[in-house]
Amino acid sequence: MPPAPGGVTPKLELRGVNLRYFSPAGETEALFDISLSVGPGEFVGIIGQSGCGKSTLLSLISGILKPTDGAVLVDGRPVTRPGPAVGYMLQQDFLFEWRTILENAILGAEIQKADIAAARERAAQLLAKYGLAAFLDHRPRELSGGMRQRVALARTLCTNPDVVLLDEPFSALDSQTRLALADEVYDILRRESKTVVLVTHDIAEAVSMSDRVIVLSRRPGRVKSEHPIRFSAPGGVRPTPFEARSAPEFNTYFNRLWQELEVHVEG
């Protein structure tokens, strides 16, 4: 298996991963021969048409599912079940209305039987950092959609995972909130030096946030292509996702990926 781009030892690897489902009706091949590497601190976007296995791939990385063949490794160690090394942020926030915001943020730590006192302290710090210090004792129904997603992110990061998986985390939000929150989440994850895998249907979102975009083929999903994303910026500082959408390279990347996805109407 080749190293991550730049010769860096991978933080995350998938080696020849296949996934097949079996039912009385027969066998369904969901993913085929997925091999990829993600370096420490790299932000990788995964796109593909509906049903190609994008979210399934995240379930394999998180340990929720086990591959039929192949292996998933974090820091060279096989992922065999969900654990603290990998955090998973889903499309919906799944906050419990009977728990306070702080209690929701430590839920993952409770499930993993971590030090709850330490988890509460870290969660409170994260929530304060995300502008929610005044809402620790509030209920989810008292928060806006964007605020709820910040709580979900705090819950994901409370256990201090090395790898963070984002499964369409902004899809339930209106367009203005979605753009603003993408900038916030991007900044938070960069400052936390997390390795990130983002699954999205939104090509613009993938281009604006990712260091590299991987395109999956139609089912069975396989790696169809990989696209490094580079923006020219003063001082070599990468633009924010919002700023990236106005960069001269943005349309080139967008159009290339649009063609890769074969979403255009063919005559």
3D structure, described in words:
By secondary structure, the protein is α/β, with parallel strands linked by helices. It is built from nine helices and ten strands. The strands form two sheets. The protein has a six-stranded mixed beta sheet, with helices on both faces. Strands 2-1-4-5 form a four-stranded antiparallel beta sheet. β4 (69-74) and β5 form a beta hairpin. The longest helix is centred in the last third of the chain and has 17 residues, at 175-191. The protein starts with 11 loop residues before the first strand and ends in a 6-residue tail after the last helix. The mean pLDDT is 89.
What tags apply to this protein structure?
single chain, 267 residues, alpha/beta, six-stranded mixed beta sheet, 32% helix, 24% strand
Overall pLDDT: 89
Radius of gyration: 19 Å
The separation of the N and C termini measures 40 Å
Overall geometric form: globular
Share in helix: 25-40%
Total beta-strand segments: 10
Question: Which structural category do the helix and sheet elements fall into?
Answer: alpha/beta
Order of helices and strands: EEEHEEEHHHHEHEHEEHH
Would you identify the regions where 5 or more consecutive residues have pLDDT less than 50? Answer: none
Query: What fraction strand?
Result: 15-25%
Largest sheet: 6 strands, mixed
Strand order of the main beta sheet, please? 6-7-8-3-9-10
Number of helices: 9
